[in-house]
Design brief:
By secondary structure, the chain is of the alpha+beta class. The protein has nine helices and ten strands. 36% of the residues lie in helices and 14% in strands. A four-stranded antiparallel beta sheet has the order 1-2-8-3, sandwiched between helices. Strands 4-5 form a two-stranded antiparallel ribbon. A two-stranded antiparallel sheet has the order 6-7. Helix 4 runs antiparallel to helix 5. The termini are far apart.
C-alpha cells in the first residue's frame, strides 16, 4: 500500500466507510437498527504542514505535532514529519438525533446523550480499527486520543485543552473551520464528532477550501448570526466566545444527573448550541440565518 499514493487514500476511506456501514458497529440503540452516525467526511494532512507548529503557539506548547506523538509511540523509528499523514474524519449526527435535540432547551435529548456516550464508543473503536489494520500491514500508526501519553492540559489562552485536538486536526485536513461556540463547522454542519490517526503513509493532503480558521462562521465572517448564544441554557456563550468552565459545570452538575435519572445510563453531552442553528447541518448562508 505505501507505494501507491492515490490508492492509499481510497483504501483508508474504504476502511472507514466499511466500518460505519456495519450495523453491528454503527448503532445508536442495541436492537432498534438505528445508526449512530451519518456518512462521514474524511480528509488528510501532512505531518510537516506548518499549521501543526502554529497550533503549539495558538493552543499551548504542550500540543503535539504529528511527529511528536508518532515518535513517542515508536521511539526506535527514524521518521521525518513529511513522511507522516494525518487521517481525519467527521462523524455527522443523524437527522433523527438533530431533530430531537432541536426541541431541547435545557437538557439534551436522549438520542444526543446516547450519541455522546455510545456513539463516541463507536468512534473509539473506529480509531483503534484503523490503527490496527495499518499496523497489521506493517504501516506504523497511532490514534493519538488512545495513546497512554494523551492527557488533559490547561491552555493559558483557552482553559481546558489537551495535547491533541481532533477538531484542529480536522481543520488542518480541510474539513471545517471554527464557530463562535468553538465547534467545527463542516460541509455537513457543526453537529458531529471527529477522530484521527497518524500514520507513516503517503497520501496527498486534502486542500483546505478556506483562508482562515473562522471563515464558515457568519458571526466572524459577516458580522451576523450569533444564534448559538441564546441556545445555551447557562449563558456559557456570548459575543466574546465560549466560557468552557461554565459549560463544563453544566455538563457535570446538571446534565449528568439528568441523563442518569431520565435515560438510565451514565452520560452527559449537551449539543444545544449545535442544533437549531444555521450551521447545524451545513456551511451556513445569510438566508439560513434569516430562516432559522
Amino acid at each position: 500500500m505505501p507505494d501507491h499514493i492515490p490508492d492509499n487514500a481510497i483504501r483508508i476511506k474504504n476502511i472507514i466507510f466499511d466500518f460505519l456501514n456495519d450495523p453491528c458497529e454503527n448503532k445508536l440503540w442495541d436492537n432498534a437498527g438505528e445508526k449512530s452516525w451519518d456518512e462521514p467526511l474524511i480528509g488528510f494532512s501532512r505531518g510537516d504542514d506548518p499549521v501543526f507548529e502554529s497550533f503549539k503557539k495558538h493552543i499551548g506548547p504542550f500540543h503535539w505535532t504529528p511527529l511528536e506523538i508518532f515518535s513517542k509511540t515508536f521511539p526506535k523509528l527514524d521518521v521525518k514529519s513529511g513522511e507522516l499523514v494525518i487521517i481525519s474524519w467527521v462523524l455527522p449526527q443523524t437527522e433523527a438525533t438533530r431533530a430531537d435535540n432541536r426541541k431541547a432547551s435545557v437538557y439534551p435529548a436522549e438520542r444526543w446523550a446516547r450519541s455522546r456516550i455510545f456513539g463516541e464508543q463507536i468512534n473509539v473503536r473506529l480509531r483503534k480499527h484503523v490503527e490496527e489494520i495499518l499496523m497489521n500491514e506493517n504501516i506504523h500508526a497511532v490514534a493519538p486520543m488512545l495513546s497512554p501519553h494523551w492527557t488533559w492540559q490547561t491552555s493559558e489562552k483557552y482553559g481546558f485543552a489537551s495535547n491533541w485536538s481532533e477538531r484542529h486536526v480536522a481543520y488542518a485536513s480541510g474539513l471545517g473551520t471554527f464557530g463562535l461556540c468553538d465547534g467545527l463547522i463542516t460541509s455537513k454542519g457543526k453537529a458531529m464528532r471527529v477522530g484521527s490517526v497518524v500514520a507513516n503513509l503517503r497520501i496527498p493532503p486534502t486542500e483546505r477550501p478556506y483562508s482562515n480558521h473562522r471563515e464558515y462562521c457568519l458571526f466572524f465572517s459577516q458580522g451576523i448570526c450569533g444564534k448559538c448564544i441564546p441556545r445555551c441554557p447557562v449563558g456559557a456563550l456570548s459575543e466574546d466566545g465560549h466560557d468552557k468552565a461554565k459549560c463544563f459545570d453544566h455538563l457535570a452538575m446538571a446534565i449528568a444527573p439528568h441523563v442518569k435519572a431520565n435515560y438510565g445510563f451514565d452520560g452527559y453531552g449537551c449539543g444545544l448550541c449545535q442544533t437549531e442553528v444555521p450551521c447545524e447541518s451545513r456551511i451556513p448562508t445569510k438566508n439560513d440565518v434569516e430562516t432559522t
